Amino acid sequence: MSMKHSGTSHSAEVHEEHPSQYMEKEEDTPKTDGFFSRLWALVMRGDTETAKMEQLKKELEQQKWKDPAPFKYNPGELCSLIDPEDFNKLEGMGGIDGLMHGIGTSTETGIHFKDHTLEKTMKYAGTIEQRTNVFGTNVLPARKSKGLLLLMWLALQDKMLILLIIASIVSLALGLYTDFSPPPEFVPCLDPPPGQTECKAPAVDWVEGVAILVAVIVVDLVGSINDWQKEKQFRVLDAKKEARNVTVLRDGKKAQVDVHDVVVGDIVTVEPGEVIAFDGVVLRSHNIKCDESSVTGESDMIQKVTYDEYLRERESGSVKHKSVFMISGSKVLEGVGDFVVTAVGPFSMHGKLMLSLRQEPENTPLQEKLNYLAELIAKLGTTAGGLLFLALMIRFFVNYGYDPNPDGREYGETFMNVLIIAVTVIVVAVPEGLPLAVTLALAFATRRMSNQNLLVRVLGACETMANATCICTDKTGTLTQNNMSVVAGCIGDDLLFLDSIKTEIANAEKDQRAISLDELTDRLPSPLRTLLVEQICINSTAFIPAEVDESEQVVTATKKIPWWGKLMTLHRSKKESVLEKASKGEIFIGSKTESALLSLVRRLDWAQYDQVRTSASVVQVIPFSSKRKAMGVVIKNDDGYRLYIKGASEIMVGLSTGVILVQESTAGRIQIKSIDEATRTELGRIIENYASQSLRTMGLCYRDFDVWPPPGASVDDAGEVQFEDLAKDLTVISIMAIEDPLRYGVPDAVSACGRAGVTVKMCTGDNILTASSIGKQCGLYTAGGVAIEGPVFRQLSRNDLMELAPHLHILARSSPEDKKTLIDTLKSMGEVVGVTGDGTNDGPALKSANVGFSMGIAGSEVAKEASDIILLDDNFSSIVSAIKWGRCVNDAVRKFLQFQLTVNVVAVVVTFVSAVSTSDESSVLTAVQLLWLNLIMDTLAALALATDPADPKSLNRKPSRVTAPLISADMWKQIAVQSAYQIILIFVLYYRGMDILNLNSDVEAVQLYNKMELKSLIFNIFVWCQLFNQVNARRLDRHLNIFDGIHRNIWFLLILLVEVGCQVLIIFKGDSVFSVKPLNGRDWGISLVAGFVSWPLGALTRMCPTAPLERLLIKLKLMKDPNALPVAVPNEDSDTVSLSNWNEPAIGQIAKQIGAFSNIRGGRLRASNLVLKNNAKLMRENNIHPHAIMAMVPAIIGTSVGGMWKMGQDENSNSVKPQVKVPASTLFRQGKIQFHPDTPTDHPYLLTLQGQT
């Protein structure tokens, strides 16, 4: 974000208040906008996110304390009002009047944004442009995106590409020297020029170096262009971030302005449900109450009052939970009012949080494994090349020593050939297609994921999800629809109904007598429908706000919007804010219970709520009171007066003496029966049944009066009848059961996670009964599962947490800190954790998790910034898609590895052996042929294997452990068998092919031609083996069908056809460049049959047992044990005794050993499934010697008693006392740790808590 700086000097007053402005001005640094200057900066200080953040902080700090002219206060002074809240500073500014004067605005007319409105007094000076120059815009500074050239340079930092570049330079130099240094080389040929017996050799040695450079450029371009497109995609995403309009006061008129166009000094109007996007000070408040928990962690509602009200409240000493400041990121729960904006963008609380979350991502498990593998292969390749060079140089010096007449030129060319062969081996060994395969697989997956409502912000996150073993998910909005709805109910006492979502969920409780909610219209007589409609619509305060008047003035920001930003505004995202949906008539604003009832009327198309409400003649309104737990309204109708009342169902039934009869009611009149004991019992049973499912029940009743006010009723001074005189002798209309229902498909998604080996844990702020009910319905709370509340969770010690975590299914009433603690505990146990979050204070948990999912609709911008993947539909089912695509990425990389390593092993062995075994130090495959195989074909193969679509069957296998090897035993088996087959085949043809194919001749030119034909045949066979093996590599498991789903990947088929076409073209037209000759039909038949053998050979290999090979590889330490359990990672918050609490180092060391000894020998850890080694070995590794510890015990006791020694106290022990830890067994006995009702009595963890381990 570029800001114009004013040249006016700062006032003396500000200099006195902010001495930091006397800091020395930094030397002017050149702008780093150009490629070369940015490249220089990159080389000098590194292109780290940390350096960028430091530079950004410097720029913001300079702008914060810059000269604010023509205003009185600079951004730093205004920020200090809110962070932290400082009412005294506001007083020091002169209160509201002083603040408004200082930022050039008026409480009555707002800011003036037109120059001609500035009066001579200049009382309210400052145009919008001036305000943006001084205070900034409400847009965070954009990340500096890298240009294509810079991305290409960064891609060239890859070690493998650097090696290739060096090889290309050497090869090109040697090739030019060989081709163009006199005298020219002559070779035997079938048709020599007249008068000569040989032909001049084609000058094509330089092609090797050029081919390598071309290959490097191809790999570099593909990778960097993909990164550039990714950066461009995120720039577009930033441009279309949820833009919404807010109401501001400008020039005395209210106008609709985009939230990003609001500037300091604007007067903003707030309404219930709005999320504050800027910091400010309240001007007018009509009972505004805000939820600031997502910003400050304060769980209580904060009442917003005006400056004068706060002064009065302060004098009376009752300012708790009251404030004059509006904080960005908070939500308005109720009330309306206006406030003046004092900080926007990076200077607001919200902006500071967003900027603090920008950091450099860590390497993912796959990236770590690939880096290790690439370095290992590069070392092996370099070793092979070095050995080949050494062997050939020994021969070179031996021949030179025994040659009586050495020719310097001949031996110089021989040395060049040796160097070329050695470099070629290194080039062939390095898996240069590997980074491309990873990039292509990730890019393909992320694009497909975006079509399935998954926006990947961190590219490596999708492959991390492949190994996810646990998902900690929110309830509201993720598992449920975040929209309270009527899901069940009873009309009268006999007409039960259920919503379709309840009938489709296998785990939901159902009453067989209930009808579908959609059938309710046909089953209800017209008078009953009218009765219900009037009760719901009139006795309600929820509403849909009027649509925004498009003719109202909209002021755009002075900051220019790029062309791609304007393009995105033409196609506004479907993910709209709550207020936008409400303005379009999609949702109601108000009480969730009333909104659910009104939604029922609209869903069944019974009436238009606003028409029913406006046509009613309201006599008296009885507002809701938490004391009476009811609300009502009295209307005048044709028969007199009618009271509609709704409230807690058990209270309503207790006040009722009658209930309507659905079947007996006709079109003429509603029939009623008295409530006898049996009816009251039945209604009570229905209410209890709904309550047991954690449904919120609402009783709807009415009562008719002939006259108003009723005879004998008490009337207050306002002429209103007392509630107690009205709320009796009621008639029950209906019992409505309300719930935030599950999303469609969530139970199936949870079941799919179970099959995939991924456990799902619910972390919610709701109470444990509601959470348990939803958990049972969606299938994540099952037998053996534990439900616990946050306050209890915090009392557990670390060892108890580690024992509880594997069995924990529901964490209710949890805070974001609880969620982060659970995530850290699971990660320390070796779990790969995915977590969902939507609030601002979910940022730490999202960052802590291996993969963070934020909500695209309900999520805050802070949560989105902290997350790796955004769920555009807020649906849990989309997480299952992320797991599926993550496994697709991992599989694509493994498929390519299985293919590439076979090529590399065969090429290196064949090149090495053939070069060493021949007298002319030449390989059976030329450098250009090897480059076609190793670079071009592998690049195409990477693209082909990376584009396989996600297979739903991949969810039927368990996730791989983080420590599992990248190349499995099955893959090693295929690589070994296919490599051995190809090596044997090539060596047989190379050493005995002339005899087998009867190609020997006494004519030197014919013999040379036949040798060229044989080498062409070997090259063709090698290529066709790879083409067939490319199909074979699509299968990583032991199933035999290698063609499964191949028809769904059109890219694979097209690329395979391209490779076949290129190979045919090379054989017929690439004679001089590729050193080949056209082949006849026999040779083509041999090539195709040799390649086809790869398929049955692969099938036979899969049928062979893998376990013996796996045990052998593990024993030889060539492969890590894939079934090894992870070792728990120690945590700073461990229960071990801290050395800082001991006065003497020696005592501290003994204390440390005792602590570790107790952990190793302790009963709780012994029962844990995390113990991987025997106790004796663990103690040896921790340098613990029990006999030494026991020998010290008498001395410790004696000296401590005799010398009055005691444990040292922390200097800050009086500041904050840690929460007392309570053993899990004690909490279980107190009933605070709850097991699922179907948990067997012999469950291990249950027995542990019962002390029966």
From TrEMBL:
Q: Which enzyme class, named as a word?
A: translocase
> Which InterPro entries does the entry link to?
ATPase_P-typ_cation-transptr_C, ATPase_P-typ_cation-transptr_N, ATPase_P-typ_cyto_dom_N, ATPase_P-typ_P_site, ATPase_P-typ_TM_dom_sf, ATPase_P-typ_transduc_dom_A_sf, ATPase_P-type_domA, HAD-like_sf
Q: Where is the composition biased (Polar residues)?
A: 1-11
Q: Extract one GO molecular function annotation from the record.
A: P-type calcium transporter activity
Region of interest (Disordered), residue spans: 1-30
List the catalysed reactions.
Answer: Ca(2+)(in) + ATP + H2O = Ca(2+)(out) + ADP + phosphate + H(+)
Q: Name one Pfam family in it.
A: Cation_ATPase_C
Q: Where is it mainly found?
A: membrane
Membrane topology note: Multi-pass membrane protein
Start and end of every Cation-transporting P-type ATPase N-terminal domain?
A: 114-176
Q: Name one GO cellular component term.
A: vacuolar membrane
- Which controlled-vocabulary keywords does the entry list? ATP-binding, Calcium, Calcium transport, Ion transport, Magnesium, Membrane, Metal-binding, Nucleotide-binding, Translocase, Transmembrane, Transmembrane helix, Transport, Vacuole
Membrane-spanning segments: 160-178, 206-225, 376-398, 418-445, 901-918, 971-992, 1050-1068
**Localization of this protein:** Membrane; Vacuole membrane
Task: Give the record's GO biological process terms.
Answer: intracellular calcium ion homeostasis
The UniProt entry's sequence similarity note says: Belongs to the cation transport ATPase (P-type) (TC 3.A.3) family.
Tell me, in a sentence or two, what this protein's role is: Catalyzes the hydrolysis of ATP coupled with the transport of calcium.
Q: What is this protein called?
A: Calcium-transporting ATPase
User: Which species is listed as the source?
Assistant: Malassezia pachydermatis
